[in-house]
């Protein structure tokens, strides 16, 4: 169906450049945003995305025919990716190893986009030591019908609870419905300790305020509440990475926010792939200075 020609191959692109085919293909039918628009977005934000996205195992949400058609989650290489999409062998539960994907630079991001990737999700550990988590995420999932204000309130409460434990945390709009509270950690503890801490933290909150929070995934138990999804913190789980686009209507993106800014946000989809310039400017400003970085360790809980 797609008739957009490939770039003429008479002058091969310089080594650094990634050729994006079918730039005119509409990936987001609602807003009309194309694969070219998506590639331009990622090329622009690569410098501010890479500090969070580079050198960790990633899962991709690929939608080769656009977000309205079949999309799939991909964590292993099944061929076809460019040379800048790298592989890291990770031990599986059965004792064997599987290759996972990671990227090191802008070319890797763009080669994923060339393969139909819309979303980038990352492990909470880096490729140089996948057994040592360095990032905890509390993914706040509101029940249908809850107000975004409730989500913001929950994020703020979690921030203060974490601060009581000596932990600095950061807020990110997911680009979907919720907010992620991100806790950077110095590696040094096990996945077991990581998961355990996040589970107990979420359970303590839901015990203290059972009408606001739940720590169990069950939709039935979520009625009118916010699910504190701590399951992102298990070995092998991923969370959407800062500045990843989302395969949702309107091409929203996941965006780091200062805590004060969060209070003003009206939805988790406040930014889209059309906002690259704004995002770059923000990222250079004071509010986001140091976002996502803190030298801290898990306390005993
Ligand atoms: P929202 O704010 O709408 O909840 P989200 O990114 O937090 O957006 P969730 O459904 O809560 O979406 O999922 C949390 C995380 O779980 C995702 O960011 C993703 O990394 C991971 N995830 C979601 N679906 C899958 C899946 N099918 N396979 C693997 N991981 C998934
Ligand atoms: Mn979520
Ligand atoms: Mn979730």
From TrEMBL:
Region (Disordered): 1-20
Protein name: DNA ligase (ATP)
Species, as recorded: Erythrobacter litoralis
Full-sequence range covered: 530 to 830 of 830
């Amino acid at each position: 169906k797609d008739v957009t020609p490939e770039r003429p191959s008479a002058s091969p692109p310089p080594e650094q450049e990634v050729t994006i085919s079918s730039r005119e293909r509409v990936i987001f039918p609602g807003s009309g945003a194309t694969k070219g628009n998506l590639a331009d977005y990622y090329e622009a934000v690569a410098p501010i995305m890479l500090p969070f996205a580079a050198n960790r195992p990633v899962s991709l949400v690929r939608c080769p025919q656009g977000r309205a058609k079949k999309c799939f989650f991909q964590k292993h290489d099944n061929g076809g990716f460019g040379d800048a999409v790298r592989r890291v062998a990770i031990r599986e539960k059965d004792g064997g190893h599987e290759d996972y994907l990671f990227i090191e630079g802008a070319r890797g991001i763009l080669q994923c986009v060339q393969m139909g990737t819309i979303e980038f999700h990352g492990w909470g550990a880096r490729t140089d030591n996948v057994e040592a988590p360095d990032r905890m995420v509390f993914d706040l999932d509101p029940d249908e019908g809850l107000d975004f204000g409730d989500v913001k309130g929950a994020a703020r409460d979690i921030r203060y609870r974490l601060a009581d434990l000596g932990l600095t945390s950061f807020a990110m709009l997911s680009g979907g419905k919720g907010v992620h509270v991100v806790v950077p950690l110095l590696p040094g503890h096990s996945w077991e300790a990581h998961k355990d801490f996040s589970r107990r933290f979420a359970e303590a909150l839901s015990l203290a305020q059972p009408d606001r929070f739940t720590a169990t995934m069950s939709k039935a138990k979520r009625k009118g509440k916010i699910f504190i999804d701590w399951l992102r913190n298990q070995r092998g789980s991923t969370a959407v990475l800062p500045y990843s686009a989302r395969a949702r209507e309107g091409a929203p993106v996941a965006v780091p926010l200062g805590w004060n800014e969060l209070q003003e946000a009206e939805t988790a989809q406040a930014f889209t792939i059309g906002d690259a310039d704004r995002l770059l400017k923000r990222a250079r400003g004071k509010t986001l200075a140091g976002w996502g970085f803190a030298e801290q360790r898990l306390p005993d809980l």
